[in-house]
Amino acid sequence: MKKIILLAWVLVGVLSCGDTPKNEKEAEGKKDISEVVEKVEPTFEFGYNLDDFVVIKDTIKAGDSFGELMAKNHIGYPRVYEIANTARDTFDIRRIQIGRPYTILCSKDSLQQAKCFIYQPNSIDYVVLDFADSIVSYRDKKPVKFVEKKVSGVISENSSLSQTMLDAGMGYDVAERMARVFDYTIDFFALRKGDKFKLIYDEKFIDDTISAGSGRIKAAVFEHRGKPFYAFDFVTDKAKGARGYYDEEANEMKRFFLKAPLDIFRITSRYTPRRFHPVQKRWKAHKGTDYAAPTGTPIRVTASGTVIKSSYTSGNGNYVKVKHNNTYTTQYLHMSKRLVKVGQYVSQGDVIGLVGSTGLATGPHVCYRFWKNGRQVDPLREVMPPSDPLDEKLKESYFKSIKPLKERLDAIPYDDFVDDELVTEL
Fold this sequence. Notes:
Glucose Permease (Domain IIA), about 40% strand, metal ion binding, 3 domains, Nuclear Transport Factor 2, Chain: A, 8 helices, metal-binding, about 20% helix, zinc, alpha+beta, metalloendopeptidase activity, 6-stranded antiparallel β-sheet
């Protein structure tokens, strides 16, 4: 019996020796298993822990409907109707568009039944329809970081503003925004070699790396024919969200008339008392300004007013005429399509038709005609009504806010990008 007990103690000793480190170095080398296992962070998106679901991500295809997507994921049509009816004030399920992304969160069981549908109408906004228990619907936005960009460019020979801006690394949306800022003060159809610009604007990013387009332009200067034109973004009424662009003397950039009825394209024929008509083959006055552009390009009304004619003639083709007040009237000829009717009120910048080549036209363009006190005049030579100055009560705040912006703008060289700077996060 004593031998058996002794043998047992020997075995216990041997086993203990196998688990005990021989020295301090070996002891340091041994780690608890909990320290070795890598900690996996949960994946959150749209406010959900995606690890709790079977996740389906796709884009809306031709023929897809909310009901069919739900049916594929084990939601019956009575429940689909209930979801659609409950969520109708938040989102109309019939509005889903081809190409837009969606996410379906399904249960982690053998049925994998849909519990939540998330639709993204754009890269920032999303709509949530949660029907795991009761039906909840709401709209939200992805967190967006705004990165400040500073850029400059110089118009070269045979180049355009949009091309110069693209060459400088900006997108079409920034080029369009800048054109709209100076829409009332600069004739972009008459740019010259050596004209130059500088601007400070925000670019939006999702998840730090995915660009979501540009935000508002904060400040810009465009030097045209040696004269600098400044523009600064300024909030005039925080409660109403009212804002606009003003120059360095606090005058509003917006004027009574836009400089042109199109975005940045080219002038092919100016207002002239004598021109050889390319179709009629004879000399006659050309009392309009021709802007060449591809067929279908939107034509914008240059000032607010009432449509007094929307018709077709053999010479004008499809045309629209707008009366702005007792002094000014404008006309837009050769449209491929008219989009307004007689008696309709239109606001400055509204699209009233599309570029075409109807009537006496050799190619797609819009002939822009301008009347002052019943007489046709050249809009490019006409002195337009001045803009309204900023309210006196806001001027002190305005000048204080634009001072550092102007200093930073003036410091940008006319060559290349300046380092980006993260300025805010929403």
